[in-house]
Amino acid sequence: MHASLKLSNLSRLPFSLKNRARGVLSASLEQAAQDVKKFCTDVPTISSDNRPFLLPVFYTFLDPLQIPATVDQLRSTPTASQTDVIRNRVLLTFYSLQSIQAILALDSISLQALSALWACIWPWISFLDGYSDNLPECNIPATTKLSTFATLINFFANHVGKEIFSSPGVFAVVGRTWAHLLTCYKSNDDAGIIVDEALSDISQFITQAAEHIRKHPDSLDDLGKGAGGLVSRLPSMVVSHLRHFIPHSDTVVTKDIATTVCGMVPFFFEDVQKHFPAFSRALLSCGAVPALITVLRAFGPDQMLVEQIFALSVVHISYFPRHKSITEALRAGLFPALFSYNTGRWKGAAVLWLKNLLSRILPGSTIYRSTLVQLRLSLAERDSWDAASTFTTDNLSDWNAFLELANSRFQILNDYDSGILKAPKMCNNMQCMALYSDDDIQACGGCRLFRYCSKDCQLTDWRNDHRWVCAPLSSHRNDYSTNSARDKSFLRALLHHDYDTHREIIAREYLRFALEGPNLLPVLVFGYIHGACSIEVDPLTLLINTLDFEAALAVTRDGRIQYQIMAVMNGEKPSCLLFPFREVGRNFWEELRAYAASLPLDGNALGRLDEYLPVVLELMQRE
């Protein structure tokens, strides 16, 4: 026992206070509980010279050796008198914990004494939490009890450290406390203040435990179990925590609120994502991106970790499905967050994240109708933004290039919405393969990927080979299902637009391909990974590793269907979407190969492709 916790220290108290303390020690359980409750109320009024000498009183009542006997009584069927004893023991313990909490908040205690205190405090917290459903009614509000636990655990974590994180079950208690407090109504009354202070304690505890969580990710499992489920329960709690303290962008962010919000940062670390791969996606589904953007807008340029929160926002915006995250971020006010300060806010590492956002993430999402619609709304106030004062020269160049690309896509969107630009679909019956509007063609009820203009065409294709490929195609449906029907329709329309706009480039690529690989089937690849369209023609067989089944199916159709690949970003990795485009017939490929074979093979043919384009364009016109 540490010297400061020995009862002999009571002799150092003034006479009246000493007699009062000794009276508590000699009282019955019921009376002692009431006396300690009164002490807890009086602690702030007692002289700072005397408060530390009261610790031995409360320490004495927290003897862990009392716990086994209490547990045995609970496991049997206690009599009425035994129930009263248990109730008074619980009240005495809880008021002792509150009294220690009050003293620790006001006075400095040695580290050795704190370690000894924790050795007695933690077993009782663990007991009161673990047996809460079995204990007699004590009229202690759950919020008050759990808030006391949170405050004590955070205090000892802050002053003792690693010893606290290794205490069995401490993360489960924190998780249970956290989940309960998040369900409490936030108000400005005393109860609301208690909730906010306890949530702040939990945030600080998580910040202190960040390194421990990195090394021991299983701690998150305990946190999730304590919250009433698995670790998958935590993402919704993280987002609720952020929204609790910063519900809207004009929230006044005090230093305490900033500290509390930053306590959630460890949950976004890469270490957590690696140990729990589904964690980041769960965060997204719970609204992490809008919550982070709201925090970013509310934070001032001098708030702690503002650059890290911006980096986390960019990282999670880029996760799959990226365009949906961007749409949410735009709706939450991504651009106002960027332009909130025109005093050179974006410096240092933030410049690199901003470049990634402006030159890669945002441009790559302008191929989706849903994003473009929101983007057009979000850019409506851009004339009031001072980009020159906000961005570095490099970032400003990226911003202007992005605006130029966005404006060109807005025009395509206008043509699509007005019906000028259409996205016809091809009947997949090999004996038909005509193009139809959305209203005149229906999807297969099995795979939902092949389409037919009539029941006769569907039946014919089923008898030919679709019955063998329908189920495998269905298993690949998830690759396409992240996009809404409107987004998929717009993607097809964008392909048609860029095909017609870049016919000369396509003709040049076709001819180059015919010269380099005359015996291979080609596929058009439209790259939108960084936003602007790039076009190349590649061998269809090279795509088997990416689109194994679809590519193999295309090969079996012997080149009669012209396939187009859209290379897009799905999350952090490139992804390919395969679109049957139109029937081209074997004559096109045969005539193109024949023409390529007739060109002089003097080593300069590839250098003089433009001379031969008119013939290729004429062949393409016959498709």
Radius of gyration: 34 Å
Structural class: alpha+beta
Q: Mean pLDDT, as a whole number?
A: 85
Q: Enumerate the strands of the largest sheet in spatial order, edge to edge or round the barrel.
A: 6-5-7-8
Beta strands, count: 8
N-to-C terminal Cα separation, in Å?
A: 92 Å
Inertia-based shape: elongated
Strand content: 5-15%
Protein name: MYND-type domain-containing protein
InterPro entries: Znf_MYND
Pfam families: zf-MYND
Keywords: Metal-binding, Zinc, Zinc-finger
Summarize the structure.
The chain is α+β, with helices and mostly antiparallel strands. It contains 31 helices and eight strands.
Annotate the secondary structure layout.
Layout: H1 15-26, H2 29-42, H3 55-60, H4 66-75, H5 80-106, H6 111-130, H7 142-159, H8 162-165, H9 170-182, H10 190-208, H11 210-215, H12 218-226, H13 234-245, H14 255-262, H15 270-275, H16 279-285, H17 288-298, H18 306-317, H19 322-332, H20 334-338, H21 349-364, H22 369-378, H23 387-390, H24 393-418, E1 425-426, E2 435-436, E3 442-443, E4 451-452, H25 455-475, H26 478-481, H27 485-501, H28 503-516, E5 522-527, E6 534-539, H29 548-556, E7 561-570, E8 573-583, H30 585-598, H31 609-621
Parallel strand pairs: 5-7
Antiparallel strand pairs: 1-2, 3-4, 5-6, 7-8
